[in-house]
Amino acid sequence: MSSEHFTIRIAQKADVKNLCQFAKDIFLATYLPDFEKRSHLEELINSWFLEVRIEAEIQQPNIQYFLLVDDQDTIIGFAKTNPDEKETDSIFLSKFYIGEGHQGKGLGKRFLNYVIKKACTKQMKLDVKQCNTKAIHWYRRQGFKITGETNYDLQFSDETELRVPHYIMTK
Question: Which pLDDT tens digit goes with each residue over 6-36?
């Protein structure tokens, strides 16, 4: 999908370095207020967005990274889909981010609709932190409904533990 201002495409091996840097930057900006220690968030980011890990995922046929890029092929958003582990007819949207300078312009809605159309079989699920009311409201406007709850239990190298409650949303 393209327009005069952006293109949506599947990530390739050549995109891994830029994708990892974009993901690290956006995660730091998005989630730093939720962490007492910056080092905890950096520990998560550095384990989740290793270039070797993302490169391996890109090569798996059941995982897709969608990139939203501008006219200079700079990443301004990304989404990751993978099979739902619990329901075979569902796709799980495990990552969906639009860069701060590009939010509020309708790109997110267009990007999400494209990802759903290309990746989804019957239904799409995602999870969102229960305290992230802005994202919950946005996903509801896109047709998602809260259908459950889950917790992510995180443990850091300094043995600190953190439980992060999430809603499961389905469309």
Answer: 999 999 999 999 999 999 999 999 898 888 8
Question: What is the distance in angstroms between the CA of the first residue and the CA of the last residue of the chain?
Answer: 22
pTM of the entire structure?
A: 0.90
Record the tokens describing residue 53, joined without a space. Answer: 């890990």
Distance CA 80, CA 11 (A): 10
Sign, CA torsion 132/79/25/159: positive
Q: What is the rounded CA–CA span in Å between residue 74 and residue 90?
A: 30
Query: Which residues of the chain form beta strands (DSSP E)?
Result: 6-10, 64-70, 75-83, 90-98, 123-129, 145-155, 161-170
Phi-psi region of 74 (alpha: psi -120 to 50; beta: other; left: phi over 0): beta
* DSSP letter assigned to residue 87: -
The whole-angstrom distance between residue 62's C-alpha and the CA centroid of its chain comes to 16
Alpha-carbon distance 85 to 91, whole Å? Answer: 9
